[in-house]
Amino acid sequence: MVDGELRSNVIASQDVHKAYGGVVPELASRAHELNIVPVVSEALRRAGVVPAELSCIAFTRGPGLLGSLLVGTSFAKAMGLALDIPIVDVNHLQGHILAQFIRQPGAARHEPSFPYLCLLVSGGNSQIVRVDDPLHYEILGQTIDDAVGEAFDKCSKMLGLGYPGGPVIDALAKNGDPLRFPFAKPHIPGLDYSFSGVKTSLLYFVRDALARDPEFLENNKEDLCASFQKTLIDILLDKLVKAVRQTGIREVTAGGGVSANSALRERLEAEGSRRGWRVYLPERKFTTDNAAMIAVAGYYRYLAGERSPLDAAPVSRL
Length: 318
Description:
alpha/beta; Nucleotidyltransferase, domain 5; 2 domains; five-stranded mixed beta sheet; two-stranded parallel ribbon
């Protein structure tokens, strides 16, 4: 990133986890260790930047898998020390929150005004966050049990659709009837979320249906995906509507891997149009974990004069 503008963003995918139906921490950390040097080298090459021109290195301190965080933190410290430049640690959730501010060469800027509300939805988090400026946030509501991304993955596993579940369910749901199968919705006070009950509702529904008809899943998977997906999105949007009403803030964004879901994006746009919100959605390539969002968050922290010591330790929960 140069003067706030993204010059390159290189991602090394880890398809090895698909065989296990979820992320295996040991395999993830080994893949990070194997890929970090060639990925950084390729990112610099694409950006047309040599290491000596760098002013600062941003890295993810947490939350996340500790082994993977250790690899990134150690590499950032070593490179910062070798180049004699500062390092800045970033909360990876703040990266998702600020993904809308990733500026690309030649692209029109489409950024929310402060304060705004961010629906932060991923495999490990489901939150509504008030963002007053790039460095100050307030969590207005969050899940009290499971994250919505985990609900998508568990649904996919129950239906035998594979991992990661979100994209598979999103694709199948396009051809399904979202009103065919009703699933239980939680009644949680305030702006907090809960997704454990809706997963249980699906589990018992499928169990009972298979007892009556062994071919039920194969014959109804598109409707099941559409109905379950709609239930999850209804839960997310109900609380977001309340948050907008309570705060009076009509600038709304979304972030995290689940914000790539096409039905969620359509519903957010539709709610925004109907309710007079200004909705901002990051490009899909910036919704899942990526270096660009860490760079933009680190950029703002660097401008604010923040620096991290060389004894900064990664934290799995931050």
